[in-house]
Amino acid sequence: MTLGFSVNELLPKARGGGQLRMGLAKLTEDEWLDPKPDLKARRAGFAEFPEGTQLTPQALAPGEELAAMLGLKGGLLEAAMAQHEDMCLLTRFDGEEHYRLIGAAVAWPSDWQPADKMGLPLRGLHAPIAGYEEQLASGVDHFMSALKPGPIYGRCNWFIAPTGDERWLADKPSPVAFAHVNADNAGETLFVRSERQTLRRLPETGAILFTIGIYVEPLVGLNRANIAALSSAVRSLVEGECERRGTGAYADALIGYAKRQERNRD
Are 107 and 38 in contact (CB under 8 A)? Predict the structure, then answer.
């Protein structure tokens, strides 16, 4: 299984609902990063969101190693500005078992603030995700510990947002943010957001690089199979996850829109 670089390509590889899973795919070097980054948009993104760059002293050497791998001078920020993907660094301190976030260069977050996450271990980073501790935490910890330099792994997810902007910081309760959405206009007012995430270990410093490529598409831009899959997925999210995603504010509209698409096809 490989991953593409668009919402329509990524959604079939993403988890729908039900139990959490990592869903990793092994990637080649050519499949690691988006080959066509919009560098003007990246520069603007970082300029508009300077708080998205958070660097601890422990991130300096891995950041320089990463930049050199990409043929650049500088560190984590320069690496992320030269690619489509936001980039984070994690490491395990002496005497500890868990990896912690030590650096972030994030222009387009999906409703999170890097400053709030710096220094947290993986379980703390994922604490808002319902079911993570019970279903996924031990497996993720084991994967991170066993990851060797060289292999690259990728996965993807999805969110529904009320904005088509690459940067999404929810500033309103979901019932307010999605109040204008109904089954008639859902195609133009609901935006499907997918994170194309990759993991690899840097060979010299041993830090783990986590990249996040953001892709956004209005619901109307998805193919029928993906619209139907999302309609099914919002019905089967685990308890607690619906609240975090604000599903109750848009699920009826999305499901109604999907049903109309099916009727129109018939």
Answer: no
User: Greatest CA span in the chain, whole angstroms?
Assistant: 62
d(CA 208, CA 148): 10
pLDDT tier at 134, thresholds 50, 70, 90 = very low
Contacts of 40 (CB under 8 A, 6+ apart): none
Q: Is residue 138 pLDDT above 80, yes or no?
A: no
pTM equals 0.90
Residue 83 identity (one-letter amino acid):
Q
Q: Is the pLDDT of residue 246 over 90?
A: no
Please name the residues in contact with 73: beta carbons below 8 A apart, sequence gap of 6 or more.
67
Which tokens go with 185? 């206009």
Q: What is the mean pLDDT of residues 132-139?
A: 51
**Which residues does 263 contact at the CB level (< 8 Å), separation at least 6?**
none
